[in-house]
Amino acid sequence: MATERDRELLAGIGEDYEERYGFRDPEKYVFKPRPGLDHEIIDIISDMKGEPDWMRQFRHEALDIFWKKPMPTWGPDLSSINFDEIYYYIKPTDRQGRTWDEVPEEIKRTFERLGIPEAERKFLAGVGAQYESEVVYHSLKEEWEKKGVIFLDTDTALKEYPDLFREYFATVVPPSDNKFAALNSAVWSGGSFIYVPEGVHVDIPLQAYFRINAQNVGQFERTLIIAEKGSYVHYIEGCTAPIYAEESLHAAVVEIIVKEGARVRYTTIQNWAKNVYNLVTKRAVAYEGATMEWIDGNLGSKVTMKYPAVYLLGKGAHGEVLSIAFAGKGQHIDAGAKIIHAAPYTTSRVISKSISKADGRSSYRGLLKVGRGAHHSKANVVCDALLLDPESRTDTYPYIEIAEDDVEIGHEASVSKIGEEQLFYLMSRGLSEEEAATMIVAGFIEPMTKELPMEYAVELNRLIQLEMEGSIG
Amino acid sequence: MASVLEIRDLYAGIEGQEILKGVNLTLRQGEIHALMGPNGSGKSTLAYIIMGHPHYEVYSGDILLDGESILEMAPDERARAGIFLAFQYPVAIPGVTVANFLRQAVSAVRGYTAQKDEEGPVGSNLIPMREFRKELTEAMQLVGIDPSFARRYLNDGFSGGEKKRMEILQLAMLRPKFAVLDETDSGLDIDAVRAVAEGVNRLVGPELGVLVITHYQRILNYIQPDRVHVMYDGRVVLSGGPELALQLEEKGYDWVRQQFGNAVKA
Question: ipTM of the assembly?
Fold first, then answer.
């Protein structure tokens, strides 16, 4: 539990995007090759990283897949992404810090403004901080290191644990999965690698923070989490970027392996600037008796396409996706969930909450599949959409495929508008119209905020407050 | 000096349909008035208009708080000026706990929110947590609400009686100068009416003026009014002491209808 003091320290977070996150640092990068993507750029990245040949090969093959795959046409409009103008790799510094003192001054200041070192001291087991393409800081508290927990940036993990890495890498999301997974596979850089040994419970969260600073840059981190039998870990990621005229691209891949009886919780608070294309593939496999939980908050970005997935592969496995989307002016957030029941007695729960404001558009796109043999499975999907004004829009695209008879499936969807009677009631108790509307929205997303550690719940509520400012009248 | 809420020759309605046809009523801080009348006489409309419901229109006349018109004030400004409405149908706000809601409402009404320091930490624009908790615990005890309700979502899944008691809890916490209780007894069994009335009785005193709107006399067995007004077809047609309520109970509203129905229509 956070004390009042913790909350005071977190006070500023989310106050004002422009001021808090919108600042940009001068570019003093050690390496920034030309924009555009071809096999030569792949070799440059691979050379810079000093990777084994199999990874170089993997990247080249993935690039061919990326080129071959057509752009998806079924979701939001992606036509204005110009792949030739994007910088696919930027190395901001020569070395990675294990203490904040080792991080270059300007980059350190960035993360200080974002409150990261402070949060680390107060309530985290470990922190990773990625700036453009590379992780500039990484640390794990000794107590966890001693228990055999590995928390590294993904590039270092490839060097230090090559066999473990190769055993799991790209096994959950292969490059051929979709166009942006292929792109990420070709140019991936940074991200987190987490390994939790059997029976180890990392009972306070690990956090990674992703920051895009330069204009027209793509960030392609790759995260891999392996939770051994009976272990537990909660990983939290946050992301921001300055506001530029040019658009940026964030195309991450996250792969998670949850072994027998283990539990992994993955929390995202995505608050990219409103000109970032956020196209992310997140998938977990859960074995017997395992639990995978995605908690996904999407507030920023111009376009988000993200459908966290859980493949329930072992008997009694449980998957959850709890997501909220806030689509404000000019935003199209296409989010959802994908749950595949591939074993008997598996259970899943999807709760999706979306809020649309001004001409913002939010969509829920979900797949629920119960395969042959997944008898006695139970699944429940609830999607609630809240529209703040007549111009906003919401859509629901639920796909359900059931190949077994003996299953319990629930699906509910609702669309509501902020009720005049609710506003009047709250205003009659002294709240201004904006305060009243903000309170109704906060209540609407409460099923999500109550799942977050106090610090993040406070941050999320403040971000919502910020989005709500000036939304009335 | 005691505050005064004065409704002066008020004509008002909704969507062009006139409902109030010249209402006059004066309530002083410290007084309890009952407003009775048959269904459709305009009692609830008056309650909504006093609070500033955006759907209703005032055609002429005025509502004055200590001589100043409140008609141009938004509902939240009226609340901050000391007016409270206990709703006939309290609205549910899912996901917002009673404690959270009340802390924000109390802070707004008592001016903490207005003092908001932009640079200040979270909560600097709210009543201090410790002070608030203490007050809430006491108020819940006073109106007979289980402390566990502090963590429940506001009116969400509450029974009729629980909702009405929650209105009285809000009244206790917000400490207005004037409270309008709109059919607070409707839909409640006799035990629930008594419980709610007892809550109200603990709050009355020289600082609070109450307008009890009711169809039935039974709540007035527990809340003793100083004055009783009878509303019929958009007007207050009779005013008197507590004995008027008993008379109505005995004779019913037909008597009022006979006496004033034709006259009003003529």
Answer: 0.95
